[in-house]
Amino acid sequence: MSGFEEAARERVRRARARLQAARETRDAFEEAQAAEELEDALRMARDHGVATGGDGR
């Protein structure tokens, strides 16, 4: 696995964890920011052919 792929997967993992934490604390503002970060991370990974697991992308 290349360094780029590893970094992209880690970014997605962190974004998913941040979103989950925001949902658990019912922080709407943080949830919105985390969702946006996750969308961006997934889009970047998809655009570069990096599989992120779990969501079919």
Give a structural overview.
The protein is built from 2 helices and no strands. Helix 1 runs antiparallel to helix 2 (28-47). The chain starts with a helix and ends in a 10-residue tail after the last helix. It is mainly α. The chain has helices at residues 3-25, 28-47. The longest helix is centred in the N-terminal third of the chain and has 23 residues, at 3-25. The mean pLDDT is 91.
Task: Spell out the key features of this protein.
57 residues, mainly alpha, 2 helices, 75% helix, elongated
Q: Which helices and strands occur, and which strands form pairs?
A:
Layout: H1 3-25, H2 28-47
Helix pairs in contact: 1-2
Mean pLDDT: 91
- Strands, count: 0
- Number of continuous helical runs: 2
Strand residue content: under 5%
How much is the radius of gyration in Å?
12 Å
Structural class: mainly alpha
Termini separation comes to: 17 Å
Using the alpha-carbon principal axes, give the shape. elongated
Q: Which residue ranges are poorly predicted, with pLDDT under 50 across at least 5 consecutive positions?
A: none
Give a quick account of the main beta sheet: strands, pairing sense, barrel closure.
none
| Secondary-structure element pattern, one letter each | HH
Which percent range fits the helix content? over 70%
Put the structure in a nutshell.
The protein is mostly helical and 57 residues long. It is built from 2 helices and no strands.
